[in-house]
Amino acid sequence: MGEIRTEEMLMNIGPQHPSTHGVLRVVVKVDGEIIKEADPVVGYLHRGTEKLAEDLQYTQIIPYTDRMDYLSSMVNNHAIVNAVERAMDLEVPERAEYLRIIVVELNRVMSHLVFLGTYLLDLGAMTPFLYAFADREQVVDFFNRLCGARLTYNYMRVGGVKWDTPDGWLDDVKKFVPYMRSQMGMFHELVTGNEIFLERVKGIGKFDAETALNYAMSGINLRSTGFNWDLRKNKPYSIYDRFDFNVIVGENGDCFDRYMCHMNEIMESLKIVEQALEQIPEGPVMGKVPKILRVPAGEYYSAIEGTRGELGVYIVSEGKDKPYRLKFRRPSFINLQLLPQQLKGQSMANLIAILGAVDIVLGEVDA
Amino acid sequence: MSEETKAPETKAPEATKAPEAEAAPEPVDPRIEQATERLEFLRGKVVAKFGEDVLEAAELKQFQPTITIKNQHWVEVVEFFKTEATLGFVYPELMAGTDYKDYIEVYVLLHSFTLDYDVSLKTRTPRENASIPSITPLFAGFNWEEREIFDLLGVNFPGHPDMRRIMLEDHWVGHPLRKDYVVEN
Amino acid sequence: MEVNNNANQQPAYMEFEGFTQEESQELSKAGVLIGTLEQIKGWARSNSLWPLTFATACCGIEMMGTGAAHYDLDRFGIIFRASPRHADCIIIAGTITKKMAPILKRLYDQMPEPKWVVAMGSCATAGGPYVRAYSVVKGADQVIPVDVYIPGCPPSPPALIYGLNKLQEKIRLEAKGKKVR
Fold first, then answer.
1. Which one of A33, C86, C150, C180 has the minimum C-beta count within 10 Å?
2. B2-128 in CATH: which number?
3. pTM for this structure?
4. For B146-163, how does the pLDDT look when each residue is reduced to its tens digit (9 = 90+)?
């Protein structure tokens, strides 16, 4: 049989595509089924948050951070309030710190559930999506009771949190933790051992720790290569040093490891929630802060471990109530840069598997 | 040197107000002390290698050692920070550009796993024909960040492998994050 | 095909245009429906709306949540499609930027007639919190005609379901020749 002659073809995936998780566009050059070149095009959701923030007071910026990484709004809230508090050297009441940890970790669980559902939906499995969203809905209900919103919470304030918990909220969360644990067992039974799933993700999209570091990757993308780097441990902020939890690391840095890291991080987050529920003291939820927040003139950078990696806020202040310049270090944006290298030489079907495992949120990529 | 007025040393009394700073009002905040030590160490390293004249300033921003490097020496100094074995700032964390009305500043935050702390490096460029040599060949992670700064602040990065707009369309006029950009409605 | 609008006391029969009450009763008893072809088409269309998933931002997650098990949009015959060629309606869930606007227009043009547009959330309605941003289109209706606006940032799933029910109502009313604006 003679050699089959194929021509290179330019294919356009997105920005309207169910598996790009929003409005990412990938222009790929394929030779038959094999990707020769890939060029991600971003910016279809660029809303100019950083420019808008220059015109807003610090409290007014919090709702905009909700809409950046909209799968983990609480984490984003935490990033900005943490940055302002560090810059102003403010003290946060104990109870508020604990409430923050609880909601942030619950949010991490919720976000990873969305990853689980949508990733498997991309790979062709419908059922896990329905189960994951049903469980996610419970966490959404918790947040809805806490702050009256389902997705964009705007719950945290500089110096504390906006509201204390409603009656019975903490008890319900306490009941949710073991339930979620048992659900994870169900997910592992449903998905992790599945031969088709393993075939599609094992050994796909591999990269090593050195590449990941050079590409400034963080979060699960970095940890899946076996590199132990979690800001909750390595640059402790808030009260994370009081909890006993493990940093989940992978081994090979392939899509399967990233999937497993997500699954295991849910368990670790539940562990933190459980400990925080035990330790949470009574008391005020809002510290003493000036009515108008003025960050002293200077430059500040502080980062937290977001759901997708290092979520940092860089503030340049002139001592006014509005920042002179506000820059978000957006983990999704940075983690996506490796995509062309990851895709080179892979088949088209693997594009979805690789892209899904990077776990991007376009609101954060484009800001 | 409007920068000098922003020096964080003026905030030292503020820090002592916070209850967590256990030191009495008189002695310096231990965090400042530690940061000064680090700054002196890093500054010494740079001066020993390149001499005084690559530096524009070396100061503390809150607790962060910050070294401002002259534009034309930018790449070699950053490379030194990355490759020098005793420093080992191999992990690029953040790149940000700021328009300061009379110049544009690019800020880079690098982390070292050997020293276990961060350093901030900065360089400046005039607003007209703004240009800073690219450090993407050193840190692939700054590829898109440099493109974003090019897009939103209009700083050119010679040596970048793929310099084009990233967020806005190619035909967009102006650079939105510049302070004199007028948002039309 | 005139269904009595008074929901409280539903008649046991349907009142058809151009027939007396007795005749309508008789027809209903025999299981005969009489209507114009347009009305029957409207009835069919409204009960099998296939929206195009056009999730650009946060609202998309709520849209996915609405489609998932808890709220279950499928019970209204609303099933999400990924291709504009399959779709009857487009739910614009999220902010439309100036870079995205031409693509939205093209997707709309690719949809077969008849087609409807739902603007979900305040961004798609009028720019929302990003109305002052340099890169955001102030409402999807600057690009394509919109039939139903759903306020909220983001609208909760019940709000989305309500909005889609309103769209179904509109389709049925339009089929009767009424102008709905």
1. A33
2. 3.30.460.80
3. 0.88
4. 999 999 999 999 999 989
